[in-house]
Queue: 2 jobs
Job 1
Amino acid sequence: MRRWNGWGDEATVVELPAGGADFLAARIGSGRPLPDASLESVLARVPASRLEAHPLITTRAEDRVRHARGQSLPDWLAMREGDFGVFPDGVAYPESAEDIRKLLAWAERQDLVLIPYGGGTSVAGHINPEASTRPVVSLSLERMNRLLELDEESQIARFGPGANGPQVESQLRARGFTLGHFPQSWELSTLGGWVASRSSGQQSLRYGRIEHLFAGGILETFAGPLEIPTFPASAAGPDLRELVLGSEGRFGVISEVRVRVSRLAEREAFYGVFLPDWPRALQAVRSLAQERVPLSMLRLSNALETETQLALAGHPGRIALLEKYLGWRGAGAGKCLLTFGVTGSRVQTANALKQARQLLKAFGGVFTGTLLGAKWAEGRFRFPYLRESLWQAGYAVDTLETATDWSNVDALLRKVERSLSYALAAEGERVHVFTHLSHVYGEGSSLYTTYVFRPAASYAATHERWRRLKQAASRTIVENRGTISHQHGVGRDHAPYLLREKGPLGMAALQALAAHFDPQRRLNPGALLQDGDA
Amino acid sequence: MRRWNGWGDEATVVELPAGGADFLAARIGSGRPLPDASLESVLARVPASRLEAHPLITTRAEDRVRHARGQSLPDWLAMREGDFGVFPDGVAYPESAEDIRKLLAWAERQDLVLIPYGGGTSVAGHINPEASTRPVVSLSLERMNRLLELDEESQIARFGPGANGPQVESQLRARGFTLGHFPQSWELSTLGGWVASRSSGQQSLRYGRIEHLFAGGILETFAGPLEIPTFPASAAGPDLRELVLGSEGRFGVISEVRVRVSRLAEREAFYGVFLPDWPRALQAVRSLAQERVPLSMLRLSNALETETQLALAGHPGRIALLEKYLGWRGAGAGKCLLTFGVTGSRVQTANALKQARQLLKAFGGVFTGTLLGAKWAEGRFRFPYLRESLWQAGYAVDTLETATDWSNVDALLRKVERSLSYALAAEGERVHVFTHLSHVYGEGSSLYTTYVFRPAASYAATHERWRRLKQAASRTIVENRGTISHQHGVGRDHAPYLLREKGPLGMAALQALAAHFDPQRRLNPGALLQDGDA
């Protein structure tokens, strides 16, 4: 059963390893747990629904609780406190495009607001209902999760928009294919959600971002369905896929997605390499990207993330041995862990590995084989579960991410980390901050920063801590040539910063499109574009 | 000096080889040249300009003649006949973004129409002025052709929009870089034009289409400049680069382009391989793309294009010898020539070549080394010059292109070729039609079809032949899951077919954007979007 107030399946627990709490306590002080609310107490607080009955919509309280919040840290705090704020008045479960069209028509007749809902994994407030005089319906696409068609020759799969990661991959795998899109939220997040929020997966180096994988589909709008045909490429004017990609439910409801798939690769492996210091590590990964070494995955942890990972890995004896070996090979204090993957035919993976090893050696890299890579692969979707254990231990953890050009990567990383490290200084609170690069490109890289801090004495004060941290980092990002999001989207949490990135003219163009498709602002109002924008 | 009534530099002549005319005569009858008009006679027909004097605008007749037409076949016919139709009232030569903004303001004050003009190489009627009660100014960006900044670390170059292919590459080469964008029009076409019309270069397999290379820039609009910052990737809502890519001058004037560049490769080579027949050839190139063999260029001629190329290559003795050898190796009648390139480090190119040869061998490919590849590389920008010699010999030649998914490539190719072959049957005229695939993708391929036909007794009747051919093929394309253009854009010639591809809702969205940026329809009206669309 899925957790109602946190990440993932209740049966899955990722323990904080012995020593992990000590490591954090030494860094930012001992943990301070806050009490969790019970589901019963939350259900008791759900107000009466304002909806008239409709066969596709349920107004059951638990459904409304389970669709009220995503997985951002403020969502987390609200769920743990039991103070959810606004609940949707009901949840719709369409099973077809026809159902979606009926719901759009119903929304017009009944003056409703609709929030398209995929896996509910947003970490930027995409699917949270806002207080409204109009009743709000969360439109869950979870029943539209099937592989509808597979063109094996063109390697195009047609899916329902609500298929989550495992549903996408298992249906494709049965036919010998993969989408290759593996965001950390993969267990729960959905194809439609990936498209609507411009997601990127851990193996984007090989398979591309969702922008590349999304070949076409159907967007149900108040003006009728917008069908986007599939072409391998086209020069016929602006690409209408951009009306769907990153639209975050503002222009329409995605009822069908066609994606570019690949045959399952013959071979795949992940490796760990330690670089002696950050400057050399940075140069090494930039070279890997710019020299087009055909890797499928790459993640470079900075020194503090490397240290944190090793401290939280458990097995202190084995780690000490590893560190001794690394020190002897020239990767001591300040070392940075690079994890990379190769995927493809036997020949391709062997060639890629050889090229990568050769290049990394020139930067002082110490190759450690597949052990750490396998460890990464095994834990690749488990990090969100760790949030639960950290929370129980009295620590709040959040992540944020951006991307910038290579000439700015190091400077932006330092500024973002600094802004977070000192954001709670006025209260005398320390923050544990570390970063990795992933999704590297010839032009630059994404930066993914994790910050751990202690809850305050109350939920309200903890939320205020988060607000100060998030605001400090977000401002730093947009004022220093970073995008407000490389892979999480805009939602409500990043919307205030979008103007800085898109400019007034760009925002006005997006508003013009929103007004064109949804003049009554019935679709997810407040996400992506704020009222005051333009 | 650039030809005023055809392609390229007057000093460059690509002779039709001995036997070439015979080959065509046997196919479609002997050539029928039409008389060419003189420049003097055309200059005499240029009407008085309706413009008031402006320091950035010239109203000289020859400037107006040289900016009135592109390089489509109807443009060609108009220029050769000397019946140009509408001339711009003047040509502006801005030297800065500031100049462009002045011209936009002037256009508003004086109620002018502006046509942004790059290299004038459009083959779809992008830059042809339409008859209008408002005076028309062609806004040539040729003086804004400089490399303004190179961020070597991020591999981002900032250019003036008017830099043509040789200007782009020579300025980058001096610093050790390349853009890697080589459309056939490369000698004359410009960076801004590539962006505005979604161009694709011959080595897009390695460097990507212009959509990938275009990282950001500035669009000068009537509502002010839209500055698009560079990010390696972003999830922050719809990508505003799409307001520039494929905008064909409708939303604004590009005043600055930032592109992703690459270090000059250590090694590059092109090879020729003959596949025994079309079905196997098709499967082979699909496998190369879908198995991600890292080639930099690929072109597969169908049997008739292969035959035509060999016939027009000259050297009949050597060709006969080659054909004998190929026949002995299993590639006789019906054989298809595949040209491919590898680019990169020594190790990468060796690996890629090995993978490609191995794969092609499995499909019966006969490898012939670098001779035909070198021949292709040497002639890669010369095909447009051949049009001049064919015209002198009494043949009209035109090309058109589309792209479609692999499962439809063969069927669409046959339908397009058939529609062209029989389009003039009512007059008893034959048409010589052949096709190659290039720009292959995992999902599908572009199809590039060449058709040769004889001019009729008059220019008007010849234009009518072209119209019938173009219409037959264009309808076939959009009715059979092809895009109306993979690399030439929409302009005026393809605009009538765009609705079929984008749908009424998509067209309405584009119209809403055009109305947003240019409510008075001053910018290139009639290109991309027709009056009646939406």
Note: The two ends of chain B are 43 Å apart (CA to CA).
Job 2
Amino acid sequence: MMRNVTRAGALFIDLYEIAMLRGYFELGMAERPATFSLFVRRLPPSRNFLLACGLADLLRDIAAFRYDDAQLRYLASLGFPHDFLNFLARLRFTGDIRAMPEGAPVFAEEPIVEVTAPIAQAQALETLIINRIGLQTMLASKAARVVAAARGRAVVDFGARRAQGFDAALDGARAFYIAGVAATSLLAAGRAHDIPVAGTMAHSFIEACASQSEAFRAYARLFPRTTLLVDTYDTIGGVRDVIALASEMGADFDIGAIRLDSGDLDALSRQARRLLDDAGLAHIRIVASGGLDEARIERLAAANAPIDMFGVGTDMSVSGDAPALDIAYKLVEFEGRGCMKLSPGKRSLPGRKQVFRGFHDGVAAFDVIAREGESSSGVALLREAMRAGEALEPSPSLEQIRTHAREAIATLPAGCRALSPSSYPVTISGALARYEREVMSKIAASSQPIAAMRVAASCR
Amino acid sequence: MMRNVTRAGALFIDLYEIAMLRGYFELGMAERPATFSLFVRRLPPSRNFLLACGLADLLRDIAAFRYDDAQLRYLASLGFPHDFLNFLARLRFTGDIRAMPEGAPVFAEEPIVEVTAPIAQAQALETLIINRIGLQTMLASKAARVVAAARGRAVVDFGARRAQGFDAALDGARAFYIAGVAATSLLAAGRAHDIPVAGTMAHSFIEACASQSEAFRAYARLFPRTTLLVDTYDTIGGVRDVIALASEMGADFDIGAIRLDSGDLDALSRQARRLLDDAGLAHIRIVASGGLDEARIERLAAANAPIDMFGVGTDMSVSGDAPALDIAYKLVEFEGRGCMKLSPGKRSLPGRKQVFRGFHDGVAAFDVIAREGESSSGVALLREAMRAGEALEPSPSLEQIRTHAREAIATLPAGCRALSPSSYPVTISGALARYEREVMSKIAASSQPIAAMRVAASCR
């Protein structure tokens, strides 16, 4: 399957980045070393942690990053001059990338990715990297909540139709799987990522058939262990049709589950369970779907509604309660000098960093954001992912990432893993705090004395 | 530029649709005529209307719809049998499509697209059509609010980085342009759709340069009429640097605008305007950005803040306040027989339909959802878009669609065009209401007597 970068290519970039590249080029700065850091400024109020995701796609995009002739002609049409376009034509990524592994829980202000490269190369990736990591991290983080709410019952992704576009559906299915979702309904995602696929029938099939019983009978014959959708006309009537079919088909009856897709899922699942059990069909499982989110799933699970599997669509696929992350990609170092902006509410931590996670009795107790090269007793989370433009092999398989996510989430404090808001202690190392003050003073001493000092005084 | 259908192809489909296709195939129903209707059940509370969008992409996808060998091998790996895969290999769309033109305001329950085709063909499009039309319609509808709030000031799309994926950014830029947005920052979108592009500099350029003044000087020389970002360290300090540069450069100073990206945009824009005016720089315009949505823009515009242009990112790009539509694609007719589901809260109107819009003195006064073939005094909104699998030419240009949207929105009642909630009268024709009752009675008389009558009694 072709990846997106083939389609939008290196033109998945905002005009202002190309303009800045030209600025660097004209000022002779393009090859000078810079580090940019990707991080989330604040978690959404309804997220206790984020699950890092999207690195594999990002590394593939970066390895393929280059401008083709047609793209360069488009840039020429915007007025960019010949010598600069020649520079762009040769632009490849030759830098280093350190990143949180996919499936790692991360918190606000922690670098998820740090890119160290000639500034033109690192700047060119801005829109791409924010979009790639931001989307998959957001969707994996949402799915982790849905999976937690289901308390061990399987969750299936039904969201392709409502995802915000084809990529969001495809990449979302991968992110959901990493977060513990069992399967996806989307065949393109099943094929692209080798994820289990699931799904059975829609109401239209039942309506097209002469009767619901005929539709059920056809499916029972064609698809062993299938799931029958029972709510087209009336849920309990649908359950009775399934039971009637069981007695009609006898030993040939081999249905795996029924699906409830509307109404009071708690009450209906209990009625359906009782009817099925009374008919000797205790092995038939119950799938619930229809406007589910983690809060509804948690209520159903907490009430012990006899639901064996949840099909979750829209709300998970668009991260309905938090459909964007406050994620930024900021210059933190240029030619060895720490950089930061001081705009209100948008401060960034200067310099290359590392994040250490401390554990007590196997439970994550605190994170420390430190300068790169500092040592600490915790586990260092940022790892080398690309060196001199080459991805470090072997990259983990999707199953390995999924296992890592499950194990890493399990080390978080219980409050952090719950749906209700809970905070986790993230601190800045002494060395980083000193460096931040030093950088601020230098900015104050150079171009913006009055402003920078005013801001510095109001900082932590 | 390759389109998405090339990438995910006909596998942008859920497993249950393929399973139903097999059901139709095995039951000998696959070629029998069906009509499916795409509509939004309820508008989001913060939308007074939706702007239909995405039809051009949909028609292109449908014309290209087919399974290639690799996709068929994947389906074989899922257990689908040879004769059915042969059927899929030959599957092409040969049906008819009637649709609201792009840029038409639409309301709840009104068909946006109606597909009439052999049922297997029409069913196969379900996930594709919901995703394509749903996303672009959602984004165009959001942008229409942002444009209205700006009261004639230009709005520029800065949202590519936070859009939910590459498609969402690319297709979003097109939808925003249709809704009246002036330009996009995303070069891939500018190139793909021939939309104006805009953008200047980020904070990183200023931080990388030895000083803000140096960064401004470089841009002023390289990019005539550029916009300088003034808030990296302190907004008013940045404005003073622009003014100092003007006096330094004299006649060579040719800056178009400054951009404020943080802080109290109302107060800062007034201070900046005064400083610029006092320095004889009344021609320099002010661009505002940073977490803007239609409510903030409306407040700034209502207060007459001296802002000439708004850069809008995240909230518009993900339709933050309503990140999904309750959009469905439902079987409404099979072999000439009306179909509907009766699931609570998810009822669909049976049969092929037409929507008429009535006007009083040039202002839209009411819509009537009628049966196809009914005549009415209003304007018929659904038009033939594809006949026997061939798109009807010529399709309108993006500029024509944009003009149509502007003119059609202008005919809506003022309350409808405002940001605060307002309802618009949409009724069902007498013939459609009778047909609905007739279909319900038939369902009641056939497979589901008790259930259907119970639901029918509670319907309008």
Note: The first strand of chain A starts at residue 33 and ends at 40.
